[in-house]
């Protein structure tokens, strides 16, 4: 099978590079100018979607226009230099709103729901989870996501880094 | 404290009053808070909307002010775990606010409201949110599909309503209550007769002296009588219990069937929108699980609660009369025991539910691997799958070992502590017997009573959990029963034969908050027209059909049939005159014949055969060994996609509708069969209004006119020829399909 062709050679993924994509920020939104075939076009507001939100936070980012058409992929935000990388990260942080839980103060189960009191870096969080076991997603043995009843997301990046009391409170649901 | 929770209106006003008003003009409309700043960090933000302005505040300070007259477009954008409200004006797009997903509906509603205000200068206030997620009484987040949280539901009135539902079985319930009083008397009398036996004959000095004086015959009749009395009591207890269980069972089974009927009927009446908000698993749980839980509560737990409580009170009174100190000794540890057992129950429930979850996880891993075993073998991933299974069962084992260890350490301790009470009692009664201040009979009676008191403790400790579970079920059931029908029949709904003239005026509709699937659609279809709906996937073709069938009500605009608003027809009468064939055919378990005749139960065999023939189903059905009697559906004969579709078409034709809807009805058929069916259909649909969706555009060539949808709006209307000349979207779609089929032809030719 000498003639074996790689699928990635046939289907070309269009990656954006600093030379063809220029990102800027305006009032909490990210906009882009795209250069294609020597022509620069202001695409206006773009939307960044992570292809692998659980694994690669700063890489493989799909850039979509207002109508949801993909303009290209960012392979690694770092390729765009520190300043743009920071901008991309800020935008991703806005799009993927995840509360990082530092501490779990209480988990009360009542009437089929669990009521959580927790803390993230900016203060107290209170949320309600339905069907607790199924609302907790294990990314790996140490990292979990919790989805609340409204669709908000909470992450515990490292279970082993939690204090003992917090861990005891969540342990039964793992 | 009753007014602690503010009404939404009060909240809005309070928010409005707490913020500076300079720059605002026009009357106040609404105010709401948001929780994320421009960079997505948490903040204390608020938005005030007046008739002319939109003001945005953060931490009490005004950050932005927009004049509605200068704005072009207000938009709701859904992010992940958050959403945002934006505005576009002459300077481009600006963020108004961003908030967590809990405020999703609020933002989407206000985007619509602002757009309306911008376009018409007025707004329609339907301030009730469709998916209110907060309990109106306590402010807790509500579960899916609930309108009031279990904690705040008026449980008293719910139980009253339940009892009302149980009223047809009142005689069974009354009998069981009476029997239970009888049984109660027997349980209390038992130990007393026992005492009479011991003190009067077994351990009685008088009896002993009577026996030594006149032989056993002197006391024998009395002794035998007491023993017989005990036997009678035992017997009575068995009979009473059996009768009581029987009457409870009678009431319970009848009641549960009634309750299931009520819930099922209600669910069937729900609109598709309401139904899609609840999963089918959830609905199944309502009909089976929750009703069973309620039955258990009404006929199992409630009588038990009363019985055990009465028993405890009665025995406590007897004990106090008999020996207050002893009663004190026995009763004081009761609350402690109840608490200890409750605590242990809760603890064990938690650790075992974790084990249960692990078991079900490894079960589902196993199911997953076995159902995909062919793929596993094809890709040679047996080892990987083994490891996955091994990991799941090891986890299960680890949890089980841990739980068993904990259980075996904790449980004996509990049992030991609980037994200390009876040891104390033994010591006390023993020393009194030795001191001759208590008879052996008294001691036996007391220990029987103590057993009667301590017996239900275990049960009482479990009571809070049982009650919580039942109350949750009751609340959930009433939530279904009380659900307001959002697609309900009007009063004096019209039932009449329709002609099939359809008119759609300025129709806007979305399934979810914020995303309109159809926008400002206008369409006129005359009786007998054959209309083809064309467009890419996801442009709203099926949605339009759903609306014509009144599966949903439009968010704005109207649909009329023969000049009468759809909402004025009775749904039953309307749908009985609309026939549908969907791409996803659903066949029930039963014979092919039953499935076709489903649309017109009781019609004669010839009509069914004719419909089946018209749909091109007859040929393959007669070749089946069991013909029309072939059982299909679960565990039945497997049909191909095309065969299923033909049965479904036959069903719709048999229905003889005034309006026929074909949603990709012939998609699973080969071109030739499709053509045959098309020809037959052509004859059949002559006087009927037909609306058809097809991706294979050639099937729509005979349409009276075609409607091309794009992104939820009608972009082109005309006959095939007109649209081809126009060279718009339809032209592109046709050309793309032609290219594809000619390429295929070339490939076939080359082979």
SSE map:
The complex is a heterodimer of chains A (174) and B (751).
Chain A: H1 7-10, E1 21-26, E2 29-36, E3 39-45, E4 47-50, E5 59-64, E6 70-76, H2 81-95, E7 98-100, E8 103-110, E9 113-120, E10 123-130, H3 132-135, E11 136-138, E12 144-147, E13 153-156, H4 164-171
Parallel strand pairs in A: 7-13
Antiparallel strand pairs in A: 1-2, 2-3, 4-5, 5-6, 8-9, 9-10, 11-12, 12-13
Chain B: H1 8-17, E1 28-36, E2 42-50, E3 53-58, E4 61-67, E5 71-78, E6 82-89, E7 92-100, H2 104-120, H3 155-165, H4 170-202, H5 205-214, H6 220-269, H7 272-277, H8 280-322, H9 324-331, H10 333-371, H11 373-378, H12 382-434, H13 440-482, E8 502-509, E9 518-525, E10 530-534, H14 541-548, E11 556-561, E12 564-565, H15 571-575, E13 578-581, E14 590-591, H16 592-597, H17 605-614, H18 618-623, E15 631-632, H19 641-654, E16 659-663, H20 671-684, E17 689-693, E18 705-710, E19 713-718, H21 720-726, H22 729-750
Parallel strand pairs in B: 10-17, 10-18, 13-16, 16-17
Antiparallel strand pairs in B: 1-2, 2-3, 3-4, 5-6, 6-7, 8-9, 8-11, 11-12, 14-15, 18-19
Helix pairs in contact in B: 4-6, 4-8, 4-13, 6-8, 8-9, 8-13, 10-12, 10-13, 12-13, 17-19
């Amino acid at each position: 099978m000498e003639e074996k062709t790689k699928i990635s050679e046939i289907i070309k993924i269009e990656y954006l590079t600093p030379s063809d994509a220029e990102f800027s920020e305006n009032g909490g939104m990210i906009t882009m100018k795209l250069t294609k075939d020597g022509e620069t076009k202001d695409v206006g507001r773009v939307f960044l979607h992570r292809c692998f939100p659980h694994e690669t936070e700063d890489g493989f980012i799909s850039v979509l226009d207002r109508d949801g058409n993909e303009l290209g992929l960012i392979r690694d935000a770092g390729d765009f230099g520190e300043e743009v990388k920071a901008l991309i990260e800020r935008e991703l942080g806005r799009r993927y709103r995840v509360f990082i839980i530092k501490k779990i103060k209480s988990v009360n189960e009542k009437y089929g729901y669990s009521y959580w009191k927790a803390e993230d870096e900016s203060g107290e969080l209170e949320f309600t989870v339905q069907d607790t076991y199924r609302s907790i997603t294990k990314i790996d043995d140490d990292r979990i996501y919790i989805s609340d009843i409204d669709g908000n997301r909470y992450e515990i990046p490292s279970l082993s880094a939690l204090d003992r009391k917090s861990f005891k409170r969540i342990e039964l649901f793992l | 404290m009753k007014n602690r929770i503010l009404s939404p209106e009060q909240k809005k006003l309070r928010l409005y009053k707490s913020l500076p008003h300079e720059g605002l003009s026009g009357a106040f409309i609404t105010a709401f808070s948001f929780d994320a700043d421009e960079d997505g960090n948490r903040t204390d933000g608020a938005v005030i909307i007046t008739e002319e302005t939109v003001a945005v505040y953060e931490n009490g300070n005004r950050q932005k002010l927009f004049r509605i007259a200068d704005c072009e477009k207000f938009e709701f954008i859904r992010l992940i775990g958050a959403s945002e409200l934006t505005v576009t004006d002459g300077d481009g797009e600006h963020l108004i606010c961003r908030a967590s997903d809990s405020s999703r509906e609020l933002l989407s509603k206000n985007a619509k409201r602002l757009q309306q205000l911008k376009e018409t200068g007025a707004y329609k206030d339907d301030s009730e949110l469709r998916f209110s997620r907060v309990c109106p009484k306590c402010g807790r987040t509500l579960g899916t599909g609930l309108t009031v949280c279990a904690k705040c539901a008026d449980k008293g009135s719910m139980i009253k309503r339940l009892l009302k539902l149980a009223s047809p079985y009142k005689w069974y319930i009354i009998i069981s209550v009476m029997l239970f009083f009888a049984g109660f008397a027997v349980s209390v009398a038992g130990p007393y007769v026992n005492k009479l036996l011991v003190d009067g004959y077994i351990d009685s000095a008088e009896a002993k002296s009577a026996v030594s004086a006149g032989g056993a015959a002197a006391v024998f009749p009395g002794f035998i009588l007491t023993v017989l009395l005990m036997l009678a009591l035992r017997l009575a207890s068995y009979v009473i219990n059996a009768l009581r269980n029987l009457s409870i069972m009678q009431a319970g089974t009848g009641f549960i069937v009634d309750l299931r009927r009520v819930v099922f009927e209600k669910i069937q009446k729900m609109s598709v929108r309401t139904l899609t908000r609840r999963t089918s698993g959830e609905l199944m749980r309502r009909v089976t699980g929750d009703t069973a839980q309620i039955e258990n509560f009404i006929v199992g737990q409630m009588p038990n609660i009363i019985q055990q409580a009465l028993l405890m009170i009665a025995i406590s009174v007897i004990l106090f009369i008999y020996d207050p100190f002893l009663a004190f000794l026995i009763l004081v540890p009761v609350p402690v025991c109840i608490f200890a057992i409750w605590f242990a129950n809760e603890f064990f429930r938690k650790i075992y539910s974790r084990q249960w979850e692990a078991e079900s996880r490894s079960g589902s891993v196993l199911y997953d691997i076995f159902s995909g075993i062919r793929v596993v073998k094809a890709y040679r991933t047996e080892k990987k799958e083994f490891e996955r299974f091994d990991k799941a069962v090891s986890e299960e084992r680890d949890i089980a070992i841990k739980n068993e260890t904990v259980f075996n350490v904790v449980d004996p301790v509990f049992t030991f502590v609980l037994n200390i009470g009876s040891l104390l009692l033994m010591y006390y009664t023993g020393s009194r017997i030795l001191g001759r201040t208590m008879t052996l009979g008294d001691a036996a009676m007391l220990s029987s009573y103590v057993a009667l008191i301590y017996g239900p403790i275990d049960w009482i400790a479990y009571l809070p959990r049982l009650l919580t579970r039942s109350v949750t079920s009751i609340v959930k059931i009433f939530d279904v029963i009380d659900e307001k029908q959002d697609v309900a029949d009007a009063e004096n709904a019209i039932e009449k034969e329709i002609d099939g003239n359809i008119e759609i005026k300025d129709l806007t509709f979305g399934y979810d908050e914020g995303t309109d699937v159809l926008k400002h659609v206008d369409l006129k279809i005359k009786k007998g027209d054959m209309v083809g709906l064309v467009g890419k996937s996801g442009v709203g073709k099926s949605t339009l059909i759903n609306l014509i069938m009144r599966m949903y009500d439009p968010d704005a605009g109207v649909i009329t049939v023969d000049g009468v608003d759809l909402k004025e027809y009775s749904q039953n009468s309307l749908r009985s005159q609309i026939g549908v064939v969907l791409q996803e055919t659903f066949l029930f378990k039963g014979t092919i014949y039953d499935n076709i005749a489903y649309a017109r139960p009781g019609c004669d065999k010839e009509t069914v055969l004719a419909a089946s023939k018209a749909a091109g189903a007859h040929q393959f059905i007669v070749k089946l060994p069991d013909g029309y009697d072939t059982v299909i559906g679960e565990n039945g004969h497997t049909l191909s996609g095309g065969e299923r579709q033909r049965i479904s078409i036959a069903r719709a034709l048999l229905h003889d509708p005034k309006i026929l809807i074909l949603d990709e009805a012939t998609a699973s058929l080969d071109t030739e069969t499709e053509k045959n069916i098309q020809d037959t259909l052509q004859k059949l649909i002559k006087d009927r209004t037909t609306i058809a969706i097809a991706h294979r555009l050639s099937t729509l060539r005979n349409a009276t006119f075609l409607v091309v949808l794009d992104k939820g709006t009608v972009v082109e209307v005309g006959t095939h020829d007109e649209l081809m000349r126009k060279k718009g979207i339809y032209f592109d779609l046709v050309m793309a399909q032609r290219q594809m089929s000619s390429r295929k032809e070339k490939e076939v030719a080359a082979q």
